[in-house]
Design brief:
By secondary structure, this protein is mainly α.
């Protein structure tokens, strides 16, 4: 009895088992669900392909596997754009066949140009719209290459390919939506709910002065990636959830407000860091009660999920905080004035107080928008500004050129050698180049696809010539194929191994999957896999030789484009400028940060440039907003000296960020100081406080630009030394 008692005491209780089961369901359980859905999708699509006696069942499965995603919204979005791309590729290729069917060289030249354009488009968009571009090129080649041998059957072959692709997409979407669906809307809500809790802890630490620089930089890179990811999720949820579709404008607004919120916090944090570095004790002492007011409120939300009801409570807290903050700032200003500070200390205080008050206002706006998600309809849904991604045109053109050259070289080799598997050789080169076009490291992905295909060739040879001839019936075929498909699905769920999984599944289906009339021809089998592997080797060499994207030439271009965001804040129209600036800088950083993977020195430099661009860009946008709403009074007129000084400062900043140098930095610094002097010298009939005086607010923004240019850790100083 005692031994039984001791054994039962060692066994976990019901609560512990329940927690362990929940943890497994949210980790490895998700992987096993995805593997199960992959098998169900594959066997449903394969059974229908055999039952309908489609000419190429392998095309059905390839389509199904390419569309596979863990979340149903991603599957539906991918499927929608894939069908659009398939129809576009069909239309273009039928036109090419009608025009150039008798001249293979001219036909291949046109095909290579079309595929290059499609690949460049995929590299340009880098989201689910990229699949439309990829499939427009891939479908064209899949239809057009075999049609060069038999142009008389090109139209019917094109219709069969479209039917097969559509069937694969239909099966994937059906299983993903009906069998244990993992919705993108749930992932979006979870990301939104947890994001603010993480940021609240970061901001509270920054206001308290306990935030170290390494944590700050890591958070900036993570926030940039999250902003891009949430925008993609928002677009995806529109395909699966009508409730999220009703809130699409508010979700876009929420992401935009969060980006502005983090930019404002960064500006405030950098100014506080500079004050601490130069030991401006008088300013920090009078400012501390204001910082504690906001920081203490945020500390209470650290690590807590922000639900809709919680957001309404947070908005009420922030409204009360803002009402308390303004009297505290006025009291702090009076205390500082009583201590007879220097002019620089006064400007530092006014700038920090302005940033803190605006930061509290941004927090309040964000909380109100988050709380509005509880209603189906809300006035905050009216949001015209959109996330504006930025892509490097040269990088997209290089990806297109690389793919076009692969098609052209493969086609010429096929024509000159009359190789029976030349069509497979050319088709594989297109698919490899298309799949790797959006990758930050196409060489690595191409190698993974190659090794995945090699594994598929080994398994395919064993199954085709040792196992399949002894099978009888579809159930036994499913049992034999299940381990291969399960292995590929498992590899896809691991980001570092996903290329192996795609290579295994896609090329195993292309070369090893039995058709309705099975053929056991070892010569053809080996020839087909040899063509695939040689084509992949050529793609790897092309990715290594033809301007690989993860190299300094592209880092430097993206860095230059990041600096150009400041130029755009000065020269572009004010409408929609803030949202475009916030999204553009983060998208550029996210691209460059991924391309510089494995180079922490480059990543750190890119982060420092983003900080510099955000600091100066935010101040310029606020300056332009203030000038846009100035009263029609003589001391605010366009011809006033302070207005001319600000325009001269804008020209100096444009020169500085286009071509960073010590000479241009000093010129810009002199222009900023002249603008500050001119603005402070202008008389206006208003109390000289930032809540009542437009000129005082503009002095704060100008002073912030000045401190940013003087910062010894600024990349502008490093460029000047270089």
């Amino acid at each position: 009895m005692n031994s039984l008692t001791r054994i039962s005491a060692r066994l976990p209780g019901a609560d512990a088992l329940r927690q362990a089961a929940s943890a497994w369901a949210h980790s490895d359980g998700v992987t096993w669900v995805f593997i199960g859905k992959t098998l169900l999708t594959a066997f449903l699509a394969l059974w229908l392909a055999y039952r309908l006696e489609l000419p190429q069942p392998n095309t059905v499965l390839v389509s199904a596997f390419i569309v596979l995603q863990p979340q149903s919204g991603q599957v539906l979005a991918k499927s929608f754009y894939r069908i659009l791309g398939t129809l576009a590729g069909l239309t273009v290729m039928v036109t090419f066949i009608a025009l150039f069917a008798q001249e293979r060289v001219l036909f291949l030249l046109c095909v290579s140009l079309w595929v290059g354009l499609c690949t460049a488009g995929a590299a340009r968009y880098r989201d689910f719209r990229a699949y439309a571009c990829l499939l427009a090129g891939y479908t064209a080649v899949m239809i057009g290459i075999p049609a060069t041998l038999h142009p008389e059957g090109a139209f019917m072959a094109a219709l069969w390919r479209v039917l097969e692709i559509t069937l694969g997409i239909f099966c994937t979407g059906l299983v993903s939506a009906l069998v244990l669906p993992q919705t993108s809307s749930a992932a979006l809500r979870n990301a939104l709910d947890s994001r603010f809790g993480d940021f609240a802890g970061l901001a509270a630490a920054g206001l308290e002065g306990t935030l170290d620089h390494a944590r700050f930089e890591q958070a900036a890179a993570r926030i940039a990636a999250e902003a891009v990811g949430l925008e993609n999720l928002r677009n995806v949820t529109a395909f699966e959830d009508p409730h999220m579709r009703l809130r699409s404008g508010r979700l876009a607004r929420l992401n935009s407000e969060f980006m502005q919120l983090t930019t404002r916090f960064h500006a405030l944090q950098r100014l506080l860091d500079r004050l601490r570095e130069r030991q401006a004790g008088a300013v920090l002492e009078v400012l501390m009660p204001c910082l504690v007011e906001v920081g203490g409120l945020l500390a209470g939300w650290h690590g807590r999920p922000l639900r809709d009801a919680d957001a309404a409570f947070l908005a009420a807290q922030l409204e009360h905080c803002r009402q308390q903050l303004m009297p505290q700032i006025r009291e702090a200003r009076a205390r500082l004035a009583h201590a007879c500070p220097r002019e620089a200390d006064q400007l530092d205080f006014e700038t920090a107080a302005e940033l803190l008050f605006r930061f509290a206002g941004d927090l309040h706006d964000y909380a109100q928008t988050h709380a509005s998600l509880a209603a189906h309809k809300h006035i905050r849904e009216q949001w015209k500004e959109r996330f504006t991604p930025k892509a490097n045109a040269v990088a997209a053109a290089v990806a297109g050129l690389r793919c076009a050259l692969l098609v052209l070289v493969g086609g010429v080799f096929w024509i000159e050698t009359s190789w029976l598997s030349g069509a497979t050789f050319t088709l594989t080169s297109v698919l490899i180049a298309a799949l790797s076009s959006a990758s930050p490291n196409p060489k690595r992905l191409s190698l993974q696809l190659t090794f995945g295909t090699l594994l598929g060739a080994t398994l395919g040879f064993i199954l085709t010539f040792r196992v399949l001839p002894h099978l009888d019936g579809f159930p036994l075929l499913c049992m034999v194929l299940a381990p291969v498909f399960a292995l590929g699905a498992f590899l896809i769920t691991r980001p570092q191994w996903s290329g192996y999984g795609v290579g295994l599944l896609v090329w195993f289906c292309i070369a090893s999957l039995p058709a309705n009339l099975a053929r056991y021809d070892a010569y053809t089998f080996i020839n087909e896999y040899l063509a695939m592997l040689l084509s992949m080797g050529m793609a790897v060499v092309a990715a290594m030789v033809i301007l690989p994207p993860n190299r300094p030439w592209l880092w430097e271009r993206l860095e230059a484009e990041l600096r150009m965001r400041v130029v755009h804040t000065i020269s572009d129209p004010l409408k929609g400028l803030s949202a475009g600036f916030e999204s553009g800088t983060r998208d550029l950083l996210n691209q460059a940060y991924g391309l510089a993977s494995g180079r922490p020195d480059v990543q750190r430099r890119l982060l420092r440039w983003m900080f510099q661009v955000q600091e100066v860009g935010l101040a310029i946008i606020e300056l332009r907003r203030e000038q846009a709403v100035l009263p029609d009074e003589p001391w605010y007129a366009e011809h006033m000296p302070w207005r001319r000084a600000i325009r001269a400062m804008g020209r100096a900043l444009i020169r500085l960020f286009i071509q960073p140098s010590e000479h241009n930095r000093l010129r810009a610094l002199a222009a900023v100081e002249h603008a500050i002097h001119s603005t402070r010298s202008t008389q206006e009939p208003r109390p000289p406080h930032f809540d009542t005086s437009p000129l005082r607010r503009m002095c704060s923004y100008l002073h912030f630009i000045r401190t940013s240019l003087l910062d010894p850790s600024s990349p502008l100083r490093e460029s000047s030394r270089g």
